[in-house]
Amino acid sequence: MRTQEARRRIALEAARLISENGLRDYRQAKEKAAARLGIFDETCLPKNAEIEDALREHQRLFRAEDQPRTLRERRETAREAMRFFARFEPRLVGAVLDGTADEHSAVCLHLYTDQPNAVIGLLQERHIAYDEQSRRVRLDRDTARDYPVLRFNAGEAPIDLTVLPYDVLRQAPLDRVSEKPMRRATLAMVEALLEEQ
What we know:
This is Nucleotidyltransferase-like protein. There is one protein chain. By secondary structure, this protein is α+β, with helices and mostly antiparallel strands. The chain folds into 2 domains: 2-62, no CATH class; 67-196, Beta Polymerase, domain 2 (2-Layer Sandwich), CATH 3.30.460.10. It has helices spanning 2-21, 26-37, 48-62, 66-84, 95-98, 116-125, 187-196, and strands at 91-93, 107-112, 131-140, 143-154, 157-164. A 5-stranded mixed beta sheet has the order 1-2-5-4-3. Helix 1 packs across helix 2 (26-37) and helix 4 (66-84) packs antiparallel against helix 7 (187-196). It is globular, with a radius of gyration of 18 Å. The protein starts with a helix and ends with a helix. 31% of the residues are buried.
């Protein structure tokens, strides 16, 4: 019973840190939350799914007025970015798709091409300043690889592009929260979400 109570407290505090401070690494959020609460038992750390549930609850209670507006704005930005990158078969992933986006959230897109330099070339051609990094993506339980990530701002919204090979288009990477195939949305699906909203 005490472990359950501690997990719940950590999940709620981690959700607050994510929502208010823009912390996006769930592991870091729960460790920081546990330290703030003085709970040092590893068995009390909540699962990522528990933190995501707590985040939705936090937003419903404390961000009910501004979070839906911010989510809509991020989805509109996603729609425009997906149109811009249409030739790379973009898929929306992450907080903007699942509905937990806030003012700290980036519009995260997966782009598919066997020529990553074509994405860079498009950004350079349009004089869009970007940062280049890499990200480890788990394709399945046994396979993880590093792929290029390009980041830039579109107005106030950060855009995060993970450039994946074309043959991965049919195989969704594993979600860091659920460890199941990642939920992804095409442009048509994003437009449908905006219609619903």
